[in-house]
Amino acid sequence: xxxxxxxxxxxxxxxxxxxxxxxxxxxxxxxxxxxxxxxxxxxxxxxxxxxxxxxxxxxxxxxxxxxxxxxxxxxxxxxxxxxxxxxxxxxxxxxxxxxxxxxxxxxxxxxxxxxxxxxxxxxxxxxxxxxxxxxxxxxxxxxxxxxxxxxxxxxxxxxxxxxxxxxxxxxxxxxxxxxxxxxxxxxxxxxxxxxxxxxxxxxxxxxxxxxxxxxxxxxxxxxxxxxxxxxxxxxxxxxxxxxxxxxxxxxxxxxxxxxxxxxxxxxxxxxxxxxxxxxxxxxxxxxxxxxxxxxxxxxxxxxxxxxxxxxxxxxxxxxxxxxxxxxxxxxxxxxxxxxxxxxxxxxxxxxxxxxxxxxxxxxxxxxxxxxxxxxxxxxxxxxxxxxxxxxxxxxxxxxxxxxxxxxxxxxxxxxxxxxxxxxxxxxxxxxxxxxxxxxxxxxxxxxxxxxxxxxxxxxxxxxxxxxxxxxxxxxxxxxxxxxxxxxxxxxxxxxxxxxxxxxxxxxxxxxxxxxxxxxxxxxxxxxxxxxxxxxxxxxxxxxxxxxxxxxxxxxxxxxxxxxxxxxxxxxxxxxxxxxxxxxxxxxxxxxx
Length: 592
Ligand code: ADP
Ligand code: MG
Known about the structure:
Bound molecules: adenosine-5'-diphosphate, magnesium ion
Largest sheet: 6 strands, mixed
């Protein structure tokens, strides 16, 4: 009764009464869950029955089990099982990764070879493969390595001596494992967003670095659960090598029970050891998965001791940089930021996708240090134009040059040689690109995102790269986010990091593809402010944007594109206030 009156009082809005109510006199009665309680009782009963029957039924033979569990032959067999599993897991994963990379490679023959291998090895039953390898001596009496099509022999050995049962088992498990693992890795690679590759390429990272630093670490998140499943399967399928009379754990146990006829206790010895192996592997999996989930979740729980180690490692670099940074930085900044812009000449370029002509004979001249805003309806070819300038897209006709150097070609006299991927990547570092969806590398911290390309491509030392990254972050107002992962940042902050990342290579030209369209309205301003600052520094900027007010303020030239044509180009005042072309006027009427 007392309760009712009290609450009634609160309901009536007597605020003073509410704040003064003393809740401590109430007693809390937990909610009852009769279903849950019944479930608990049932589970306890099941566990009790299982334990009772396993420990009271003498036929389980726990005495014999204890006698053999740590017996020497069993431990030797266990050692072999572990060794085989470890070796086959490592070599199978390496071979599998190579096969997966071959399958996604651009060489059709290499991709088909890899496909054929996977098709064959996945089709052959494991046991058949093991027996064939064990009988390889019958097919080929000797194994020799020599110079093809000559009589020179470097190495010649009888097959049976070379292919011991252990070697055959190792080979069989590896071959089998690699075929399955290759598909798991390929699945992982496919799961990584295409934008990640483009961002890596636009920073000029080598193909190798793109694969091993950007794609595979992110692919690991989807590779690991199934990959470990495979390794656990592998640990169990080592038991199949008993067909080669190789005394691993299972074969050893069989030998023993044939002698003493204690079948069940000895099978239990093997089972419990397999359980131990799987438990260890599962724990390892848990920690490895946590490691590779860096940046994938907003609030990662640190591994035990991880935060402690991180603090130890970071502390010296941060303090030393701060100590010298402030006074030194400001003078150096001024010089660095007035980077020389590059002059971009676009000469008659055309590009088609199938029958669709996306760029049609475009002719543009962007002087060094100019700021150009590109506007136009969706699908008019704005992104394609930027991607062509950065050579992410090959044009069908025409040329683009930056400071007189042709993008994608090198000139010797009157002959143009198409550049190899490696050289294209090197040239590309003069042209930075900022994407609509930021395309930051989510598994790397803000600092790591920025210093990756300067170290790898420009050959800066780590300390130099970090110092410059700190300056850049101060410039975009994100000094405090240096150790954050991209997913822990707002969209506007991510885009500012992406700008800092592009600037870290000190590009001559910076391309922005709708840098603010993925942002909430209140975040647009902070990104535009950073670009406005940049516009004053002398870097040549090309900005695809729908922010007309911004374009009017920063651009010295505005280009209106439609259906692959530059319809109109001129000063902002001329294009926005007094467009010559009716199409431009119609478009502006819609967006202004
Ligand atoms: P915008 O950036 O101006 O919106 P885009 O340059 O992205 O336009 O695209 C121009 C046209 O080219 C669109 O019609 C688009 O569908 C087409 N397009 C772009 N990329 C491809 C591609 N890889 N394959 C086929 N069509 C494409
Ligand atoms: Mg676009």
